[in-house]
Amino acid sequence: MGSGHSHSHSAAGTHRWRLQLAFGLTATFFVVELVFGIISQSLALISDAGHMAADVVALGAALVATSIAGRKDTTGRRTYGSYRAEVFASGIAVLLMIGVSIYIAVEAIGRIGEQVEPTSSTMLWVGALGLVINVISLSLLRSGASDSLNIKGAYLEVFADALGSVGVIVAGIMVGWTGNAWWDTGIALAIAIFVFFRAVVLGREVLTVLGQHAPADLKADEVTNALAAVPGVKDVHDLHVWTLTSGMNVATAHLMTGSDVDGHDVLDRAREVMKTQFGVEHATLQVEPDTHKGCQEVAW
């Protein structure tokens, strides 16, 4: 016996308009920052523009993913729909963040010893404008970051870029105060290191979902014990719990009962346990009497 529950939309889909607005703001400012970064010869500005370019791609990928995730399957092969598109978009954000951080680090190291005099005034006002744009984008994405890994990837991208804008402002102040261009290079390198470690943290979460690990807040042993406590259940085996996409945990399990137990009642109670105790609405549960030996023939 199985129990199923269809989902009309993912967590990220409800925040799509926030992504659209953040994308528009970020894409517009990227052009501004890149142009003035080149004019002022500021590596901190150029590196922040590079990171903002990654933001644009990450936000764009997140938008595309939310659109794909909501599509109905016309092939008959995607039995879980296309919800995983949002997880892949988060993976793209991770790769972009790592790529940008490496690029910034290489440029920063290569500039050491060069005689470059960035324009501090340009760095200050462009950095300040970038910070305003990032704060607006962060406020738009914050509420969805806890619901969707896709939104979280975009949020972390923008958050890292906000710190990058702060770094640009600090670099502009210090270059103007000391006349030493090293501040521009050093802060650019610090931005690169921070972006890299944020990418690693998000990347681990993406791999956890793609590897179909049990959600961090959902322990397999606790689920087994809760199902085993359902009246009539003698044994629980072949339990699998994983995350399809953010906000959508799924599970499968075999519940062994006595031959005289009402399987329908066991199924209803077990479904209620999964929904109320663990927040899993989509649970496929097979109820089988203890006289059934089919599971013994399964090789793995």
Automatic annotation (TrEMBL):
One of its GO terms (cellular component) is plasma membrane. The keyword Zinc does not apply. Belongs to the cation diffusion facilitator (CDF) transporter (TC 2.A.4) family. SLC30A subfamily. It is a multi-pass membrane protein. It comes from the Bacteria. Pfam families: Cation_efflux (PF01545), ZT_dimer (PF16916). Residues 217-289 form the Cation efflux protein cytoplasmic domain. It is found in: Membrane. The keyword Ion transport applies. GO terms for molecular function: zinc ion transmembrane transporter activity. It comes from Knoellia remsis. Residues 20-210 form the Cation efflux protein transmembrane domain. The chain crosses the membrane at residues 21-46, 52-70, 91-110, 122-141, 153-175, 181-201. This is Cobalt-zinc-cadmium efflux system protein. The lineage of its organism: Bacteria, Bacillati, Actinomycetota, Actinomycetes, Micrococcales. Keywords: Ion transport, Membrane, Transmembrane, Transmembrane helix, Transport. Gene3D superfamilies: Cation efflux protein transmembrane domain, Cation efflux protein, cytoplasmic domain.
